[in-house]
Write a structure and sequence with these properties.
Largest sheet: 2 strands, antiparallel
Structural class: mainly alpha
Distance between the termini: 48 Å
Number of strands: 2
Bound molecules: tryptophan
Order of helices and strands: HHHHHHHHHHHHHHHEEHHH
Strand order of the largest sheet: 1-2
């Protein structure tokens, strides 16, 4: 072994970093609009179901691969499996690139909206004007591209600091801030007159709205939200000391991520209904509907700014984990230093983000009949479950009983549910994911 691998400073630090990865735009921006577009409570139930049956087990599987190998996703599959298995790691690194390239675009929008909230430019507008301003902004060309670049630079800056001084320190500060901001906003949203209808929409399933596409979106959302299926948790797990027990940490990470998604639903949907807006507005829900809500709300400027700051913080700790997968891979497997890897990967990823940003109205860039950004997002929804499926097969069958030894550190750490976990990885997850993927494609 070369120089000793850096480790997380504490279990708390690891959990904050991993929860920081999981909690992001996926929870606060994507989850509420997907729920709004897919029938409310029914989507919520499917999402929760996927998290409970596959999500938690797969998170743990990835952490095991990371801790046991002390390597990046490619190196982990090579060391523990050999053969063609490192391909799963390569797929993950590639997926990370694709996600990050469009993630920075949306994250850049949050920066702009923090500004729009502060300068009050949306506060006296009608809903139509607010919608037009959103369309005008995202199709404006240069500004959104520059903001995506700035966001990428902030992400690179955190990753340059390394695991302890960069990612762990930032997460330990930012995650508690995020929870605090979230609580402030929920208190506001659920006390609005007329909020009850939104709460009912969110909690009571309307099965007539559920189609094959709904189910596929729900599984894609579960993977995306948990940062699952591309080796992010292999990467973070590779910086864990052998002595850290993992099942409890995995449960906490899943719990926090799910809680934030559900809380985001409680924050956004009641407000949408309180002002008679359309819950099925799609990706614009956050950027159009909420400013309408803030403009009609007492102290809306403050709440609006807090909201977009919340979204920014959540996005930053997630983007950091996406970049870290690529950087850990490059540092482990090539002669590049962390500095070179972070700057180079950041630059390339930004390059791939430019067409995503421009495809939002400035330039007509289509792939598979979708604009570039939507195509990148759709590809992600497919690649993550495939990555998760292969990871389950690898840990369940290729490692098999050896996985039980690895998860318990050769029996030194208790894990009463170990056999249930292995059963899920062997049968439930592969069959379930394959079924959902296939039924979504045909
Ligand atoms: N989970 C993050 C979110 O909800 C996005 C994310 C970060 C991610 N790292 C990931 C998604 C790795 C998939 C894989 O916004």
């Amino acid at each position: 072994m070369a120089a000793a691998r850096e480790h997380w400073g504490s279990r708390f630090g690891f959990i904050m970093a991993a929860a920081g990865s999981a909690v992001g735009l996926g929870n606060i921006w994507k989850f509420p609009y997907e729920t709004g577009a897919n029938g409310g409570g029914a989507f919520l139930l499917l999402y929760l179901l996927f998290i409970v049956i596959f999500g938690a087990s797969l998170i743990l599987a990835e952490m095991v691969l990371g801790r046991a190998s002390g390597r990046n996703p490619v190196g982990a599959f090579r060391l523990l499996g050999g053969g063609a298995w490192p391909g799963v790691g390569y797929l993950g690194v590639f997926t990370g690139f694709v996600i990050l390239s469009f993630y920075i675009v949306i994250a850049g929008w949050t920066v702009a909206y923090m500004g729009f909230m502060l300068d009050g430019s949306l506060m006296s507008s009608t809903p139509e004007e607010i919608g037009a301003q959103f369309g005008g902004f995202i199709s404006g060309g240069v500004t959104p591209v520059v903001l995506a670049g700035l966001f990428m630079a902030a992400t690179v800056a955190v990753v340059l600091g390394g695991i302890g001084k960069g990612i762990e320190r930032a997460s330990k500060l930012l995650m508690p801030v995020l929870f605090l901001l979230l609580l402030v906003l929920i208190a506001r949203a659920v006390s609005l007159p007329g909020a009850g209808e939104g709460i009912r929409f969110f909690l009571v399933p309307d099965w007539s709205k559920v189609t094959g596409a709904t189910v596929t979106s729900a599984i894609g959302q579960a993977f995306f939200s948990l940062s699952l299926g591309m080796g992010a948790l292999i990467t973070y797990g590779s910086y864990l000391p052998k002595s850290t027990p993992m099942p409890g940490s995995a449960a906490i990470i899943v719990g926090l991520d799910t809680m934030v998604a559900v809380l985001a639903g409680f924050m956004i949907l009641p407000a949408v209904f309180a002002y008679s807006l359309d819950p099925a507005a799609g990706p614009g829900l956050t950027f159009v509907t909420l400013p309408v809500v803030f403009s009609q709300m007492p102290a809306g400027t403050v709440f609006g700014f807090v909201f977009f700051a919340l979204l920014f913080v959540a996005a930053l700790t997630s983007a950091v984990s996406l970049l870290e997968v690529v950087v850990t891979y490059l540092v482990d497997e090539t002669p590049l230093t962390r500095r070179q890897a972070a700057l180079g990967a950041g630059l390339v990823c930004f390059g791939l983000g430019v067409p995503s940003s421009l495809s939002q109205g400035a330039v007509d860039i289509q792939v598979f009949g979708m604009d570039f950004l939507s195509a990148a997002a759709a590809l992600t929804d497919l690649l993550l479950p495939i990555g998760g499926l292969l990871t389950a097969l690898f840990v369940g069958w290729k490692l098999g009983p050896k996985a039980l030894a690895l998860v318990t550190d050769e029996g030194r750490q208790a894990f009463p549910l170990a056999h249930v976990w292995l059963f899920i990885l062997r049968f439930v997850a592969p069959i379930g994911i394959a079924y959902v993927l296939i039924s979504g494609l045909i």
